[in-house]
Amino acid sequence: MKDRQEKIAQVIVTAQQMHDIEERIFTAGMPVVALMEKVAGLIARRIQDIYLLSCQQENKGKASLSPSLPPSRVGILTGPGHNGGDALVVARELYFRGYEVLIYCPFSKLKELTSQHLQYNRSLGLPCYDSIEPLQDCDLLIDGLFGFGLERTLTDPVASAINQLNEWDKPIISIDLPSGLHTDTGEVLGTAVRATHTLCLGLWKQGLLQDQALDYVGKAELIDFDIPLADIQVVLENSPSTKRITKTTALSTLPLPRPPVTHKYKEGHLLLICGSRRYSGGAILTGLGARASGVGMLSIAVPESLKSIMVAQLPEALIIGCPETESGAIAQLQLPAKTDLNSFSAIACGPGLTRDASPILQEVLDSISPLLLDADGLNILAEMGTINTLQKRQNSTVLTPHTGEFKRLFPEIADANQHRVKATREAAAQSGAVVLLKGARTVIANSQGTVWINPESTPALARGGSGDVLTGLIGGLLAQASSKKISVEEIVATGAWWHSQAAILAAQERTELGVDAHTLTNYLIAVLVSTSNKK
Ligand SMILES: NC(=O)C1=CN([C@@H]2O[C@H](COP(=O)(O)OP(=O)(O)OC[C@H]3O[C@@H](n4cnc5c(N)ncnc54)[C@H](O)[C@@H]3O)[C@@H](O)[C@H]2O)[C@H](O)CC1
Ligand SMILES: [K+]
């Protein structure tokens, strides 16, 4: 059972894939009408739980909470397809449980099953309107206008109705997806319902995990309705995989527990190349991120003038002072005797370098160690215009751009904001690197088309320095995994998950304003401790 839940939690589907999975179930003999009853029954129960919970929260502090709250008004927004059918079954169930139910349905042509449910609801005396106004006094709205069958931009009257009800500021629970969102890209097709909750049915739809959808999705959860795993496997096996990072996938990739007999070099030797006189803080934060990764040995190459502050902040690290340019950037890498770039288990290069450090980049690219490039490492790479040569590197390369850096690196890939999964996949295929595109829902792709999406984060991370921490953290994980058989994209995905979970915990304890990058580094280990305590 737990195994099923975990497998389902990792799956992300497009509209076409969901449709194909659904078809297999129907072809195998499951009646459509039975599946709708089952799914809508689960939705109705969950809605009651959510609704009662929010009533209890509102009543907190009051002397006693009546176990049977007075029937409340629920508005049901009904579309022409089976999303509308689901909503109408929910309407009927809530009606029989004592709720006052009002239906809005502006469509005259409905799918047959949806039409039958509407007819029956009418026969029960549920009022049905083709304008939205009568629903204005409802305590709760259920959005069943469109699900994964939405094909085109919304037009009036439904578009105006959605704009109007969004203004009402009422709790809205969307069935499957907020109506108006593109199932695959999360793009708003004209307009979309701003839900407080989204109950995603069966499998996670890709659109719900996109930055541009987040203002509409609210709290999202999955309603599992027992889709056979075999059907999912058959439909997904021939397309490039898009997976959701889960706690289980992330924890299984961490270098824990350590073998009882080991030594520091066995636990990875990471070289960080970072910092300049102008940006010394970036080097410190990258170092602190790497420290939290648990890496066995940490060396940090910085301009000579940063050496003493780095030693003070990271006494365990070997700080390598390098000759610097007039502007205070690293002019040349000067590694200790008997060391060269190829002797490190991984190299992470970029935070705070400034573009004046450009001469060192080719040297780093020529190394045979796994390499992560971030920040100015990416900007210098973009200026060099040699992104195609990454394919020729003898070891993996990881690029961790934010959208601005992504556009500089891959100017010919359009829509990095609207089609983040597609854009990241293209960038990885083009460069041969593992590409991590930062965002509220960070996307990681490898050159074979495998994609991971980080499903949780916090806007608290939108702050200078948090990217530097991520670079150090992933660098440290890459170094520790260099002798293990874990794919690079999984390590990168784990780093992204860990980083965002630390920020979520920090924001819970300190508010979203209290998560400066230095504080974040202190939560990296704290979040692992609290996660393992919750197991
Ligand atoms: N996944 C499952 O196994 C189950 C899904 N269920 C629910 O069914 C919907 C998908 O149903 P479908 O009928 O295919 O699509 P929609 O309800 O989203 O609506 C399609 C309907 O709307 C028309 N249409 C499309 N775009 C527009 C537009 N812009 N304006 C007007 N009309 C439009 C289109 O022609 C169709 O007629 C899924 O999300 C679940 O909620 C099952 O109930 C349970 C199993
Ligand atoms: K919907």
Question: What this model shows, in words?
Answer:
By secondary structure, the protein is α/β, with parallel strands linked by helices. Helices cover about 40% and strands about 15% of the residues. It has a ten-stranded mixed sheet with strand order 10-19-18-17-16-15-14-11-12-13, with helices on both faces. Strand 14 (about 345-350), helix 12 and strand 15 (about 370-375) form a beta-alpha-beta unit. Helix 4 runs parallel beside helix 5 (about 110-125) and helix 16 (about 465-480) packs across helix 17. It is elongated and about 85 Å long. The two termini are about 15 Å apart. The model is unreliable at about 60-65 (pLDDT under 50). Bound molecules: ligand LP7C6HRI and potassium ion.
In short:
AMP binds at residues 438-442, 467. By secondary structure, the protein is an alpha/beta fold. The chain is 41% helix and 14% strand.
List keywords for this structure.
single chain; 535 residues; alpha/beta; Rossmann fold; UDP-N-acetylmuramoyl-L-alanine:D-glutamate ligase; 2 domains; ten-stranded mixed beta sheet; seven-stranded parallel beta sheet; 18 helices; 19 strands; binds ligand LP7C6HRI; binds potassium ion; Nnr; multifunctional enzyme
